[in-house]
Amino acid sequence: MSIQHPLEECLKTDLATWEIGPYDAALPGPMKLRLSLDGEVVVSAAYETGFLHRGLEKAFEQQPWRAVVAYSDYLDTDGSIFGELAVCLAVEEIARIEVPRRGQYVRVLLSELGRISAHLGYIVRVAKAMNAETIIHYVLRDRERVLDLFELATGARYTLNYLRFGGIQTDITDGFVERVLEVCELFRVRLKEYNDLFTYNHAFLKRTQGLGVLSADRAAALGVTGPNGRASGHAFDVRKAHPYSGYDLFDFAVPSAGGIERDEGASVGDANDRFLLRLREISTSVDLLKQAAEGIPSGEFNYFGWGEKAIIPSGEAYSRVETSRGLLGCHVVSDGGPSPTRIQFRPPSLAHFSAIPELVKGIRLEDLPVLLATLDPGISEADR
């Protein structure tokens, strides 16, 4: 006589363990993911970083003050201008240096151009995770226009080394402002193209809607900021909450997930919302660029009472800037010597990594690269 077993026992399987990394095309950089799988469904996950560790913060202590800006470029090469600005703001607070208005406007111009460049790189990574080749060529073509502007102003395209304590290294070149305005008009058109090619694509919607939902409460608890936090309804932006470099002089609204069309019962804060927030960020940056370009004042661009051999007085300061990934904090300590005593960063990606274990629970394995790409953790700034 056969023995009848409950269906659950007949179908029960053991969990499989799978380790991905530290080098894998599905990952955003050198890291490890240890997954527990029930078939192709992720049950739990743990991450491990440290494979790109460069000792950047310790290296600051071995360099003179004049080299600090150049080293801060390597915090995150997707947005090197943000590392420079965070360090400069902290040092300027210690030394009580007043940045001229023109220098502040140029900093805003470069920051928003850097934000657009980083978000375009984000779109490329998401498209690559979904094997959507067409949009990649469109976006990289347009990103070249932004990199050309960096080269025109600073002579470099990625690691700029352009800011200085008290302002900027040199004044912007002739024609720079006019080309910024041209790029603003270009992206007003391109954003519609991105939507037509990718955002409203049926396959993209099916693979991102409802994937990796992060609530506003969890975003706040984990310290998730920037576009990821705002996509979850956690509307915090350093440019508004703690204005710097004259951002309080500009009229702009903080991008949010409000008004995004969703299926009935869908939650705010999924992978689709995080992607759409980047497009809204680009639109906001275009508005800021146009205001800064049209209103840039004449006059000095640097605090000329400051020289390369000047000594930073004793003291410490903490600055905050809004990067393309969120809140970047920088703590600078000086003992009055020729080199920094301590420079330490609080990068936004640390919080994004903390969200990975809970966001991957219950997703299918093939959706893992898409989720990681839309979350956009920066390995270089986490492994500084």
Summarize the SSE layout with pairings.
Layout: H1 7-11, E1 16-20, E2 32-38, E3 41-48, H2 56-60, H3 68-72, H4 80-95, H5 101-129, H6 133-154, E4 163-164, E5 167-168, H7 176-199, H8 202-208, H9 216-222, H10 226-231, H11 238-241, H12 271-295, E6 315-322, E7 327-334, E8 342-346, H13 349-359, H14 368-375, H15 379-382
Antiparallel strand pairs: 1-2, 2-3, 4-5, 6-7, 7-8
Helix pairs in contact: 4-5, 5-6, 5-12, 5-14, 6-7, 7-12, 12-14
Structural description of this entry:
The protein is α+β, with helices and mostly antiparallel strands and 384 residues long. The chain folds into two domains: 40 residues, no CATH class; 239 residues, Orthogonal Bundle (Cytochrome-c3 Hydrogenase, chain B), CATH 1.10.645.10. The chain is 46% helix and 12% strand. It has a three-stranded antiparallel sheet. Helix 5 packs antiparallel against helix 6, helix 5 runs antiparallel to helix 14 and helix 7 packs antiparallel against helix 12. The mean pLDDT is 90.
Summary?
The protein is 46% helix and 12% strand.
Tally of structural domains = 2
Distance between the termini: 66 Å
Looking at CATH, which topology of the largest domain would you report? Cytochrome-c3 Hydrogenase, chain B
Tell me the CATH architecture of the largest domain: Orthogonal Bundle
Total count of strands: 8
Could you list some keywords that capture this structure?
384 residues; single chain; 12% strand; alpha+beta; 15 helices; 3-stranded antiparallel β-sheet; 2 domains; globular; Cytochrome-c3 Hydrogenase, chain B
